[in-house]
Structures are given as C-alpha cells and as structure tokens.
Amino acid sequence: MCAKATMEDFEALLKESFEIDTPEEGSVVKGKVIAIEAGQAIIDVGYKMEGRIDLKEFANPGEQPDINVGDEVEVYLDRVENSRGEAQISREKAKREEAWDRLEKAYASETRVDGAIFGRVKGGFTVDLGGAVAFLPGSQVDVRPVRDAGPLMGLKQPFQILKMDRRRGNIVVSRRAILEESRAEQRAEVIGNLTEGQTVDGVVKNITEYGAFVDLGGVDGLLHVTDMAWRRVNHPSEILAIGETVKVQVIKINKETHRISLGMKQLQEDPWDAVERAYPLQSVHKGRVTNITDYGAFVELEAGVEGLVHVSEMSWTKKNVHPGKIVSTSQEVDVMVLEIDSAKRRVSLGLKQTQRNPWEVFAENNPVGSTIEGEVKNITEFGLFIGLENDIDGMVHLSDLSWDQRGEDAIANYRKGDTVKAAVSEVDVEKERISLSVKALGEDTFTDAVDGVKRGSVITVEVTAIEEGGVEVDYNGAKSFIRRSDLSRDRGDQRPERFQVGDKVDVRVTNIDPKTRRMGLSIKAREIAEEKEAVEQYGSSDSGASLGDILGAALKGDKN
Q1: Which family is annotated (predicted)?
Q2: Separation CA 444–CA 417 (nearest Å)
Q3: CATH tag, 194-267
Q4: Which of helix, strand or coil describes residue 140?
Q5: pTM for this one?
Q6: What does each C-alpha distance from 28 to 23, 85, 169, 394, 515 come to in angstroms?
Q7: Residue 333: CB partners within 8 Å, gap ≥ 6?
Q8: Third-level CATH fold of 273-350
Q9: In the CATH scheme, what is the code of domain 446-536?
Q10: Which is the CATH superfamily of the domain at 22-94?
Q11: pLDDT (tens digit, 9 = 90+) per residue, 157-202?
Q12: What are phi and psi of 39, to 5 degrees?
C-alpha cells in the first residue's frame, strides 16, 4: 500500500510539473537574490532556473549598487538556458521595460519625469530616466545657452518628454520647458505685484546697444538707453555694468506679453523744467559738442539739455561747409540762445552770433573812400573778388577796373594771387556785400581833359593816327576818333591821307559821353557853323552878294 501511495504522489507531482508552463523568453519575471559573488548577483527566477547579473546593473548613475541577498527583483529573461545551463537574465532590460511603460503613461498625460544627465553626445546630452536613456538637445538644456554643463551632470531633476518612439527606442526630453514653465509662473507672480510708477531695485543682467535688461527678482525689464539719463547716452555701458544693482521706476507693464519698461532718469529732476529760466534768449553760454550731422551740431549746455546749432548759424563766412570742418566732437564752444521750445524740448543755438559781424567790423574800420589791399581770390566774367580781413571778400566790378580800358580788356591784366589796391566804394552789411574800385585810386584823364568843354565848343586837337575810316586825335590826353565823313564839308576833302600825324586841327564838339569816355568831334560841323556865322555877320547871299564875297569879307575882318 505504501509503495502504491508513493507512486501516486510521484505521478501527481509529475503531472503538476507538466501543467506549469515554462516562463516565456523576452518577458519580465520575478527573482530572488540567493548569493553575491565575484561582482555578480546570483538570482533564482524559479522553475529550477538561476541566472547571473553584474552588480553594476543594480546601480543608478554615479551611485553604488543597492542589492543584498534575499532581495526580490524583477529581471528580464533573455534565454531560458545558455551555454552554461543557466538562465540568461538582465536587470537593465527589466528596468528599461518598466521605465518605458511608466514613461509612455507620463508622455500621454504630459506629466514630468525625473532623470539625471550622465553623458555628452553630439548635439546634446544623454539622460537616464530610471532605466531608459533619453536624448537632451543642447538647445533644451536651459532658457539661455549653457557654457558649462558640469554642475548639471548626475543631478536628479525633472524633465518634460517632447517625443518618444518605443519601436525605435528614441526619447527626446527638455529641461528648458520645465524652467520656462516655472519662470512663467514666477514672472506672473512678480508682475502681479508690480504697478506702473513703482520704484524697485534690480540687477543688470545684460547690456545691448539699445539698452539693458534688469532682473527684478524673477522677471526681466527693459531699461531703454533713452530712459537712462536726461543727457545723451551713446551706449548703455557708459553708465551701467553687468551685475550692478540699480534703482529703477516701472514705466509701463504689458499684461499680455509680460513686457516691462523701466526708467532711471524718471527718478531724477527733469532739467527742462528750468531751461527757460536758466537760458534766457540772446544769452551766451559755454557748451560741449556732442554730435555732428550734415545739418548742424548738437551742443550740450548741461546734463540732459542739448541744443542744435544749425549749419546756417555756424559761421558768418563759411556758407557751404560741412559742420565737421568748423567744430569737432567734445570741443567746448561759446553759443548764443536763439530760441527755446520747451514743449518739444528744443533749443536753437547760434555759434556765429558770439562773434561780431565781420561786415560791420569792416565798415567801421574802412569807411567809404578808404584804401584797402588784398589778394585776388577769384576772377569771374563780371569782376574780381579780393580777399579781405576776417575771411570776407570784396568785389571789383569790370567797370571799376580802369579809366582808359574797357572792363573786358582790363581784367585780362589780373591773375589769381595778385595783390591789388582798391578804394572802398560801398559796404552793405545786411546783404554782406563790399564794393571796391581800382580805378578810383588812379587819375581820371578823360574827366580832367573835358573839364570846361561843352557840346558845340571848338577845340584844337592833335592827329595821332591815320586810318582808312578816319583819323585818331588827342585832346589833353583824351583820345577820340573823327570819322571820314566828318573830315570836311566837301566830299573831295574827306580823305584821311591829307592829314599827317602831329597836325593841329580845329574841331567842333558834337557829343560828350562820360560812360563810354568818348567825345564826338567833327571838322565838317565846325566848317558849317563857321559858314553860318559868316553869313549872319556879313550879309546874305539873297541881297545880291556872292558866297565868295561874304567869306572873303569874313576872312578880311578876321585879319583886321
């Protein structure tokens, strides 16, 4: 009976063992640590199977293995039996499978997961998410570029899963998304506590050409360069440094974009409030040139108060010159206040008004009729320009060059650089014109020659040249020309060749033209006038006396 019972028990156990399925390869099973030796943990996974796993698979990055005999662990069954007759198992793969299940749930619910950065790869870093390895792109590490990621390595911290593909084993995570989310919460809280017009302390975090970003305790505000000081600031680095603590005023808050505008100058007294009182019109002040443009120069009268010297108000004499050739940046100059517009915060200044008008000075020092000496600066078709004192010019018109020559001929005698003496004939200060005369310094031979001579007078001239059309004659130094038709009443005697140079001839003056400086002379007119006079004095031909008798009597009377 005993043997029969034992046999039945054996058959029952055998049947039970056949009914129990062997674990499926590629699945996660539970096991128990039964020994630790030679850097490995021996694990009984049941089913009369044991396997070995390296201790390092039980350690988190940067930590020591946490495993003891008797611990129950989940392992991944690769193969039921390897070449040594042992089960081929893996703790890492089990953790990976477990991690993927957990991470897929977190990805679906958009919840954060904990992990640690443990390596650097091309384009970013590797992150251990508790058994699964994810890729952290360099752009997703922080809200700003990170130069040194050393302090972040091995540090357990939250991440957001951006993308995952279990089939390909790809997971992409972001640390930046977590920071931006907490930053947004912090920003909203800080902004909620700020009001426009409030004065707060902040730390300069960054400086650009157009301003500086100031940290107000979790939120940045922009301090524009134009709101740093009342004076002109060329670059924010002139008055600010990174890391410096500054007191600023909240100028504007945009609740939608969370942008904050800050100001420093608003905490200082506005110098424009006292400009009209400090700078009366026509008053002269010292200033510093801060900027030069094509249309003028800006001059700082005091910190925050600048005025413009327009190019037309820079020099009395330099009309078409760039302002940069008259003044230079940082130069100290004297300026006169010409106009103030407080509403537009503008001051018009004058540079030339601080010096005397050079035309006024010239008029005082050189009255009309006085003699000046200067260099020929320019020669034009209508006259000479003579350089005078204080960079001004005077003009000698063609008609004022010579008494004896036409202006077009006289101007050919001058060259640029020649030194010329001239008389001041007119000074127009308002129009900035000075008229000069060269001929006024010489003798007017024509005027002297014709002094006392009137139209109809008979004068004696000397023949100086004989030409085909007539003869040239001289009267006290004044040249004139007698045309052929005026050489005689008789056509037969109207021959220039009957005269010789040096002959003295009586002529009648028919015209005096001071403008052309010429006298109209005629022998014919003299003869006709003499004949008329003889007829009137000695009788008329109508009384019976012949013209020859009358002229003979007239000549006889002249002899007596």
Answers
A1: Belongs to the bacterial ribosomal protein bS1 family.
A2: 27
A3: 2.40.50.140
A4: helix
A5: 0.46
A6: 9, 20, 18, 111, 129
A7: 286, 287, 288, 289, 299, 327, 351
A8: OB fold (Dihydrolipoamide Acetyltransferase, E2P) (2.40.50)
A9: 2.40.50.140
A10: Nucleic acid-binding proteins (2.40.50.140)
A11: 999 999 988 888 899 999 988 888 777 777 777 777 788 888 889 8
A12: 75, 15
Asked if the model's pLDDT at residue 47 lies above 80, the reply is no
φ, ψ (nearest 5 deg) of residue 361: -60, -40
For 446-464, give the DSSP string: HHHHTTT--TT-EEEEEEE
Q: Where are the strands (E) in 264-370, listed by range? A: 284-293, 296-302, 305-310, 332-341, 346-350
Surface-to-core class of residue 211, CB atoms within 10 Å of its CB (0-12 exposed, 13-18 middle, 19+ buried): buried
Which two tokens mark 151?
A: 């302090």
CATH architecture of 110-180: Beta Barrel (2.40)
Give the start-to-end residue ranges of the domains of the chain: 22-94, 110-180, 194-267, 273-350, 358-437, 446-536
| Identity at 87, one-letter amino acid code | A
* 358-437 is classed CATH 2.40.50.140: yes
Backbone angles phi, psi at 182, to 5 degrees: -70, -30
Supply the DSSP string of 360-398, one letter for each residue: HHHHHHS-TT-EEEEEEEEEETTEEEEE-GGG-EEEEEG
